[in-house]
């Protein structure tokens, strides 16, 4: 009895809170003309124009169509109020400003394992927008600095490398409160479930983040921006699981099974993975590649980038590991020409001329229009 009563007390705030889980602003919301909020919107519009022009903006139509579609499904009646920009940055991050302008970084696309997980993150960000958390945050920021300089620092719109210390300061100053985070978690999962996505995906995103950060701590690497502003914790995962089980338990049973995320991932894999490898965060990269293999990303792609990672890491024995991975990449269902290209260089350096020749020739046969044709033909003369 006593336990049951204590449990009821413990659950009461959660249940009471969740009954009020409704969006604060209606679809089509705009601030009043003499509201201070209006000024922030004008600044945000200026920032949005910079996003549109940014060299880091990914303009590929299929990738954009996919992200827009998931966002619109989750946003439903708010679809017309939000605009999403896919930005080339290998960190895990998504955000939505007070006027509905949002960003999805390519590092997020590399990390989520399904369309449902992407929907979970977008639902969370949408909730920050509909609950005016983003507005409150922007007010705080604008008291300290101009919005433009905030984004230069924190979001690296122009590709500026920001020192980690400065990034941490910005992240701390701009983090949402715990209550805001909790509300965004629960309303976000409600949005995605209503859109027909599996609400269990929300907890799995946070679990993935926790796992990656644990690996990173081992390697003494700094956490990414999103995890600085969104502390992932077991508590957070547990709260989400409770909420889904108690309020959305009847959904998530007969979900659409979509492989769309993996198809998109494969299509843009070279661009996404090259950026990740260039971070030199080998622990994270290796974990990511392992996960992609489990998810069913084509083996030739995974093996090729495993080879790239070893080559770049350059520890003892890594060249042999790279060679092995490139070789595997050439024997899959869809062998990558680039793997032959890399093997050609590996063997040429090692003085194994026959093997170098064979791989360079194979590469040119598969990529006759290659920019490197003249150079490789020059090498071939000496092999
Ligand atoms: Zn958040």
Structural commentary:
By secondary structure, this protein is mainly alpha-helical. It folds into two domains: 253 residues, no CATH class; 122 residues, Tetratricopeptide repeat domain (Serine Threonine Protein Phosphatase 5, Tetratricopeptide repeat, Alpha Horseshoe), CATH 1.25.40.10. 67% of the residues lie in helices and 3% in strands. A three-stranded mixed β-sheet has the order 1-3-2, sandwiched between helices. Strand 2 and strand 3 form a beta hairpin. Helix 9 packs across helix 12, helix 10 packs antiparallel against helix 12 and helix 15 packs antiparallel against helix 16. The termini are far apart. 40% of the residues are buried. The N terminus is likely disordered. The site of zinc ion has 6 residues, from helix 5 and helix 9.
Q: What tags apply to this protein structure?
A:
2 domains; 20 helices; elongated; mainly alpha; disordered N terminus; binds zinc ion; 3-stranded mixed beta sheet; 383 residues; Serine Threonine Protein Phosphatase 5, Tetratricopeptide repeat
What percentage of amino acids are in beta strands?
under 5%
Could you spell the SSE succession in H and E letters?
Answer: HHHEEEHHHHHHHHHHHHHHHHH
Share of helical residues: 55-70%
Q: What is the domain total for the residues?
A: 2
Structure classification: mainly alpha
Structural shape: elongated
Taking all residues together, what is the mean pLDDT? 85
Query: Roughly how many Å apart are the termini?
Result: 84 Å
Whole-number radius of gyration? 24 Å
Number of strands: 3
Say which molecules are bound, naming each kind only once: zinc ion
Strand order of the largest sheet: 1-3-2
Biggest sheet features: 3 strands, mixed
How many separate helices?
20
Question: Can you tell me the residue ranges where pLDDT is under 50 for at least 5 consecutive residues?
Answer: 1-18, 156-160
């Amino acid at each position: 009895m006593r336990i049951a009563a204590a449990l009821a007390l413990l659950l009461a705030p959660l249940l009471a809170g969740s009954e009020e889980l409704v969006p604060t602003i209606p679809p089509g919301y705009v601030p009043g003309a003499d509201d201070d909020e209006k000024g922030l919107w004008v600044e945000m519009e200026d920032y949005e124009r910079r996003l549109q022009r940014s060299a880091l903006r990914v303009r590929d139509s299929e990738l954009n169509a996919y992200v827009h579609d998931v966002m619109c499904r989750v946003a439903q009646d708010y679809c017309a109020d939000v605009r999403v920009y896919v930005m080339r940055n290998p960190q895990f991050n998504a955000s939505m400003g007070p006027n509905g302008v949002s960003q999805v970084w390519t590092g997020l696309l590399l990390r989520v394992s399904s369309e449902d997980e992407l929907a979970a993150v977008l639902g969370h960000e949408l909730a920050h927008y509909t609950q005016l958390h983003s507005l409150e945050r922007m007010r705080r920021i604008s008291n300290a600095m101009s919005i433009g300089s905030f984004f230069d620092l924190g979001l690296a719109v122009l590709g500026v490398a920001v020192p980690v210390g400065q990034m941490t300061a910005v992240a701390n100053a701009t983090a949402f409160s715990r209550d805001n985070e909790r509300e965004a978690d629960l309303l976000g999962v409600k949005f995605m479930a209503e859109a027909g996505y599996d609400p269990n995906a929300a907890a799995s995103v946070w679990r993935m983040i926790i796992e990656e950060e644990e690996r990173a701590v081992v390697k003494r690497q700094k956490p990414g921006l999103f995890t600085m502003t969104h502390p992932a914790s077991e508590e957070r995962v547990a709260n989400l699981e409770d909420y889904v089980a108690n309020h959305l338990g009847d959904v998530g049973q007969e979900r659409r099974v979509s492989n769309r995320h993996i198809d998109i991932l494969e299509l843009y894999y070279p661009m996404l993975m090259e950026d990740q490898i260039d971070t030199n965060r080998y622990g994270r990269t290796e974990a990511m590649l392992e996960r992609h293999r489990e998810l069913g990303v084509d083996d030739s792609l995974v093996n090729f980038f495993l080879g790239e990672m070893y080559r770049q890491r350059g520890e003892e024995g890594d060249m042999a590991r790279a060679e092995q991975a490139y070789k595997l990449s050439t024997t899959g269902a869809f062998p990558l020409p680039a793997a032959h290209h890399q093997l050609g260089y590996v063997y040429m350096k090692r003085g194994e001329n026959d093997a170098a020749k064979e791989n360079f020739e194979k590469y040119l046969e598969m990529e006759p229009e290659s920019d490197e044709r003249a150079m490789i033909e020059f090498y071939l003369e000496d092999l």
